[in-house]
Amino acid sequence: MSSNRYPVHGAGLGLRRSLMSSLADQTTHPVNFWEIAPENWIGVGGRHGKIFCELTEKFPFICHGLSLSIGGPSPLDEAFLHRLKRFLKEHQIRYYSEHLSYCSDDGHLYDLLPIPFTEEAVHYVADRIRRVQDILEQRIAMENVSYYAAPGKKMEELDFIQAVLQEADCDLLLDVNNIYVNSTNHRYDAETFLRQLPAERIRYIHVAGHYQEAEDLIVDTHGADVIDPVWQLLEKAYQYFGAIPTLLERDFNLPPLAELLGEVDIIRALQSKYSDQSNDLIQHG
Fold this sequence. Notes:
By secondary structure, the chain is of the alpha/beta class.
């Protein structure tokens, strides 16, 4: 395990346009890195495009895609991938990740739908991930996603994720909130699931809030504060894997920036408890 295993470090936050003006005027960095959806920024010009260029020159950025539809039935959008490749290079984006799901067929479905947990799907998805990595000429990470039904299931979720990562030889974006959501909705033990993920493939972590629809149903919304059990699961991840770079996701119901930074500070405080462990893992991994 080398010291440059991670594309960024510390605690990050998703960039929203409402935050941009205040950030452009800052000389100090309120977070360690920022994440964007490239689909929202490719080709953007004018005032927002100018500010975005200034920010990417100042701060480390990573991209988390929304439209790749890696498990979808339609051919990969290779024209988009070539635009993405130019965008990543132009703005010196540190890394690119996507969802282990699908979101389109003949058109966009505007939701992340579960890929059937089958061996056939493993081969199909892994082949498409390898093609994406070949076009981009870099490794990418796939995120474990939340899901509410498992149509055609012939494998366990964990086995499916492990098989895709292995066959595609790609990395993992670990979303601890999605593990918590799925463990509640599908009645499995979140810590046991977490511990069995391949540590050597994890490149960074997402943490987010959700909506409790019922006692046995959670909806992954990214529209609320992170709850204590999810913070506890994040700390477990640090115990098992070290203080991996972690990003706070908040997509709507945005509170004032100070409140978001308060949650980023929680990430940083948890990481500080396990930073020595991370260094030891790097030296002896």
